[in-house]
# Entry
Amino acid sequence: MTDYKDLLGKPFVDFGRGPNGFDCWGLVIEVGKSFGIEYPDYGQVHRAEVDRIDGIFNSEEGRSYTRVSSPMAGDLVVFRKIGKDHHFGIMVSSHEFLHVQADGMGVSGASIHHPIYSRLIEGFYRWAQ
# Structure
């Protein structure tokens, strides 16, 4: 993930769209650009609005995404908790992703095979522009 060193450690910021801080969707938008993907900006969605996040992804807009079994760089990784989609990351290779956490860690990278993340992953999705 050396191509993304400049983003690692950037703090979580509610509604953050960079360059000094991100929310999870802001990070997806930023990193997506480096893969030539223009993810839509769904605007002001607070991290505590789990129902709204789940609703966006599972609405008409969500039909622009295709579920894939073999992720590649630029694909979304969607995390599920309490039965709802609640967090997004972006794949930077076939097995590594970036995401941003509000717990003080900021932007970090991890493997989809990591024992904690692997059980929270709902799926991988490709944007059909």
